[in-house]
Design brief:
The structure holds 2 protein chains of 2 kinds. By secondary structure, chain A is mainly α. Chain A is built from 3 helices and 1 strand; from the N terminus they run H-H-H-E. Chain B is elongated and about 80 Å long. Helices cover 14% and strands 28% of the residues of chain B. Classes of the chains: A mainly alpha, B alpha+beta.
Amino acid sequence: EPLFHSRDRSDLEPAPLRRAQPIADPVAAQRFLSKYGWAAAPPGPGPRAASPHAPRVGPRAPALAEAVRRFQKVNALPASGRLDAATLAAMNRPRCGVPDTRPLPPPAPGPPPSRLPRPARPKR
Amino acid sequence: FLRPPPPPPPGGPQPEVAAPRGGTRAFAKRTLSWRLLGEGASGQLAVDEQRHILRLAFRMWSEVMPLDFREDLAAPGAAVDIKLGFGRGRHLGCPRVFDGSGQEFAHAWRLGDIHFDDDEHFTPPTSDTGISLLKVAVHEIGHVLGLPHTYRTGSIMQPNYIPQEPVFELDWSDRKAVQKLYGSCEGSFDTAFDWIRKERNQHGAVMMRFSTYFFRNSWYWLYENRNNRTRYGDPIQILRGWHGIPTQNIDAFVHLWTWRRDERYFFKGNQYWRYDSDKDQAYTEDEQGRSYPKLISEGFPGIPSPLDTAFYDRRKQLIYFFKESLVFAFDVNRNQVLDSYPMKITEVFPGIEPENHPFRNIDSAYYSYAHNAIFFFKGNAYWKVVSDRDRQQHSWLPSNGLFPKQSISERWFDICDVHTSTLNM
C-alpha cells in the first residue's frame, strides 16, 4: 500500500503529463541514434561519471555524422550528416521504442499480376 | 514451448528484435493467450474499450497467419503468453523508462510483453486525433511475433507513427514477412463457390458480377480475386451472412443455371435448401408449397447422401455429385442420373499423372469465374481440371483430366482462421 496519503487527496490526482525532452543538440541526437541502433553508444566519461559535476561527453563528430547520414537516408532526408531542422524533427516524431537494429529486409515478391485495376481500399 | 533465451547483456535486457544466432525466432504454439494487466490499464479509455481494441489488433494478425489469439482473464499471469500494459516513466517493472508525452509511445519484447506509454494521447480507431491505439497495438504485436522495423512505405512495421489513413490494414509485404516466420494458412474447406449476381451498370446494361466464397466449419470468407486476399474483416459466421441454411459444415453448393432456370442449392446430410439471391435468405417452400429443406433423394433421384461435393457443368447441363470414390452425373433436364453412372472419379476425371489424383472424398469441386476453370480441393491441395482451352493448346491432354496437384494457399492467399471468440467482431 502507499506509505503516505495527503490530506487534500492530491496524491490520488493523476500525475501531470510529462513531456519528453526534445532532441535538440548533438548529445541528445547521439543518445537517440545509439538507443535505436544507428550508432554505437558514446564512450562513458570514466570513474567520475557518478559525480553530478562530471562533464557530458560529446559524440565523436565523424562517427555521429555517419550515423546521422544513415538515419537521414532511410527517412528520405538529404544525407548531409548535419543535424539540421528536418533531421531533428524526424528524431522528435512519435515512434516505437524498439531499436531499428536490423538492416532493411529485401522486399517481398509482389503479388501475382491482377488483370484488372485495383479499386480503392474498402473499409473493414 | 520456447527455448530458454540467452542471458541478458550486462547493461540490462534490450527489447531485441533481431534474432540472436541460433535463438528462437517465433512462437511454436498455434494459439497464444494475452491479457491487459489490471494494474496496467490506461487512464484515458474505458477498460472494455482498450480490451476491444487489443482484441481487434490480435485478430488482424490472425487473419493473415496460422496463429490465433485468445484473451485469457483466468490463468495465472505466468501462464499468459503476451501481457500488455500502460505505464508512465518507470513502469510495470520494466527496465526501459518511458520518456513522457512525445517520441517513444510504446515498446515490445520479442515473444514477450507490450508496454504503452500512458503519457501519450491514445485514441480509439474512430478518432482522427491523438495516436491510434489500434495501429500502435498492431505494430507492437508485430514485434512480439518477431518482426523488426522496416522503412518500407505502407508497412505497419515502420518505426515512426504515421497518422492514420482512413483505412489501415496489413498489406501484402507485411503478410509475407510474418508468414516467413510462421508459414502460410492451410486447411481443408467444406465447400467453395462463386456466387453470381445480376447488376445494372450506370448505362442500365445488365452485368453479371461474381463473388468467391470459401466455407469452413461455422465460418466463411469472401475472397477478393483481384486483390489476392480475403475481404478485410473475414472470416465471419455463416449464420450472420447466410440466412436459413445450416450454420456449419455445409457439404456442397450448386448453382443450376440455364436459360430458364436460376437456382442455388446448399446441401448438408440428406437434405438440401434452395437460396433466394434477391431476398438473401433460404426459401421456406417451393412453388408447389412444399417446404424446405427437402430430401436429396426426392429432389435429385438416384443421388446418395451425404455428399462430398458437387458442381454444375453449364455446357453439358449436368450436376456432378461426388461421394467417396464415385461421381454421379445428374441431367437437370430429365431429372435423373445418366445411364452409365455412377463411375469412378478416376475414370471421369483421370489424372494426367495417374498417381497424382485425389482419388476419393473430395472436399470441394469449385468452378472459378476468375480462372475459368474447375478445381478439385482436398486437404491443402487442389487439382485443376483440363479445360477445352487447355486442350486447344495441348491436344494430348485427356478430356476432363486433372493436372498435378498444387497447394491451395499458393493460389488463394491468406485464408486464415481466427480464434472462435473473435468471430463476432
